[in-house]
Amino acid sequence: RGKRAFIAGVADDNGYGWAIAKALAAAGAEILVGTWVPALNIFETSLRRGKFDESRKLPDGSLMEIVKVYPLDAVYDSPEDVPEDVKGNKRYAGSSNWTVKEVAESVKNDFGSIDILVHSLANGPEVTKPLLETSRRGYLAAISASSYSFVSLLQHFLPIMNPGGATISLTYIASERAIPGYGGGMSSAKSALESDTRVLAFEAGRKGKIRVNTISAGPLGSRAAKAIGFIEKMIEYSYVNAPLQKELLADEVGNTAAFLVSPLASAITGSTVYVDNGLNTMGLAV
Ligand code: NAI
Known about the structure:
Elements: E1 4-8, H1 16-26, E2 30-36, H2 37-48, H3 53-56, E3 66-72, H4 84-88, H5 90-93, H6 100-111, E4 114-119, H7 136-157, E5 161-171, H8 186-208, E6 211-217, H9 223-228, H10 231-241, H11 250-260, E7 272-275
The structure holds 1,4-dihydronicotinamide adenine dinucleotide.
């Protein structure tokens, strides 16, 4: 049978999550997605109304089928963690079972198991603030949504992952080099995510024969990136300075993810793989 993938962090057709879903679908995988609760309504409506049909097109001409969309808020592990104001929020009250533990249970009930887990989500409420001006609350929120969310997803999905399976997350070079503008503790969150990739690769490798890798992606004008405010500048900077002078396509990250979760990458785990036109290798701006 084909492989089954759960991709957390798809809410439109612009981001890396969507591109990864497409690359996996093109390779024959069954696609389940986890969509942030506040974005669920518009995503499902747009899907239903055919707004994404053009971008659902796979290389063979067929349309990517998303077998099921699960509401998800990856900053909550189980219902006990959800504060009253969120519970009562109109956008949340309309959905149910969206904490990480519940989503894993729902996927288990619906499909039994998965082979591939993708984490393509991040959030830092103070991302536009320099680290020096970031509050404790903002910093911890960035870590919670962007780093611990992966620990939690793997913790809860590992028991239903088939041995030989693999996970992927998305990181950014601000984890290891100072990138002014990527603030609010998001740089710290990406450092944590990369370090956790190594530790979780060991633990999930030993416990469930699961591989854990992360892709350090170059800049893409996604919805999340536009919220940071300097994405156009980063894309231009990359174009001017990277070894490969071309636009970075989300599909190039999607294809790398498909490779990394496939048997072709069966000995790769704990790695940070750069998909950035080579920008990370440069030591001097041109
Ligand atoms: P995106 O906007 O397509 O994806 C981010 C997703 O996270 C959105 O769908 C959003 O609804 C979801 N999300 C936010 N908080 C959530 C929560 N608490 N629970 C569940 N979902 C939540 O944007 P993009 O840029 O494709 O981001 C995907 C990943 O790629 C992120 O980890 C990001 O940091 C990473 N990345 C992006 C780069 C870029 O230039 N766009 C560069 C390098 C890494």
